[in-house]
Amino acid sequence: MPKPTRRQLAVATALVLATAAAVTVTSTAGASDSAQQARAAIKGGKAKNVILLIGDGMGDSEITLARDYTVGADGRLNMDRFPLTGSYTTYAVHEDGTPDYVTDSAASGSGWATGVKTVNGRISKTPGTDKAVPTLLELAQKKGYATGSVTTAELTDATPAVLASHATDRSCQGPADMAKCPTDTLAAGGPGSIAEQSVNHKVDVLFGGGKKRFDQKVTDGTYQGLTVTEQAQKLGYQVVTDNAGLRGLKPGRPVLGLFAPGNVPVEWTGKPAAVGGTDPQRCTTSNPNRPATTPSLVDSAAKAIQLLEAKQKHSRQGFFLQIEGASIDKQDHAADPCGQIGETAAFDRAVKLARDYAAKHPDTLVITTADHGHTSQIVPLEATPPGLSSTLVTDEGQRLKVNYSTNTPGLSQEHTGVQVRIAAQGPKAYRVLGVTDQTDLFTTISEALRLR
Length: 452
Fold this sequence. Notes:
Helix content is 32%, strand content 17%. A hairpin with a 5-residue loop joins strand 13 (388-393) and strand 14 (399-404). Helix 3 (60-70) crosses helix 13 (337-360), helix 4 runs parallel beside helix 14 and helix 11 packs parallel to helix 13. By secondary structure, it is α/β, with parallel strands linked by helices. The protein has helices at residues 6-25, 35-42, 60-70, 105-114, 136-142, 158-164, 194-200, 211-214, 228-234, 243-247, 297-311, 327-333, 337-360, 438-449, and strands spanning 49-55, 84-89, 92-93, 99-100, 146-154, 205-209, 238-240, 255-258, 274-275, 319-325, 364-370, 377-379, 388-393, 399-404, 420-425, 435-437. It has two domains: 1-21 and 33-43, no CATH class; 48-449, Alkaline Phosphatase, subunit A (3-Layer(aba) Sandwich). The strands form three sheets. It has a ten-stranded mixed sheet, with helices on both faces.
């Protein structure tokens, strides 16, 4: 088993000392975890389980905005409470391997899923030769781990797709969506659409949106004429579509939860940012367009952990689970600060769930990070941004102005090329310290689970 390098241990030791000082000097607003917890997280060892939490588009600005609004400038979110924190770079590459400084979710997810950087829009394939690269989920399955993916996006969206499929283009989500992936079609001898590949992989738990993709009919091969949902049922999947179905699931068979036709509706609503700003507003913490039967991210994640743990009850191997808060990104694109904050808060509850589980199962590596940075910036109240902005009234009763100016008003706001936070606890958590790259996350999880 590889041991921590001198550099990693030096950085970790410095962090422990800083943490100890923070606990002593700033017990109210400083580090939430003790030096003892930090020391424990520096240790190597094998993880039985890995829970990877991805806040899509959740850069430091998005985290700060949610913190300021919900728990206050001096407060701390659950994702702020990890003992070890670093940053990683997120760039994609062009087909010739040169850097493309702003990544999309497909290329960034492929980076941690395979350890190989690729071009924007591609799903777990090489940048130049378009060849499939084994993913963490595939390697974990071969080693006998249970596997799961939970998202608030369509299950065929880029971030969940990178684990259980290989596609030339991220748009190839269902059998009717294959225009940009001619060599991936079943007729051409390829693996089929992202939806078909996901169920063919027999991932133990798949929870998210995207029912309309799975309602498309398979065009070739063994399941021709069936919908992808019917294909899943033929493969032994339990299929559920709402909270009651989720609660009633029993271990023993793989499960496919399709909780919305497209993306799962967001939890909060409010006025989107506007040219010249908005009047000061409070967010509405319930969305009238979100059906009451829709499971929350934390409920889906809790059920996933329960099912994966039950499957592995008598196994020495545990599970690998990815949990994505997808619409932090989607609401950032839409310059909707309330929708964005609500989704960050929902994701943060899933972070707490994972950390609470790890507290009882210390052989669990928990990592939280983002796939890329995004648009929102907190600016002075007197600022007059050239793009879209909104003024919020926080839970502290203070006004806060947020600016969206990475694209012309009326167009979708853009990702940014900034490095993003990565934080962890458990076996191999020390590997997140310092400034690393997205592809290093693949190595961290591979080593923790001894996949290679």
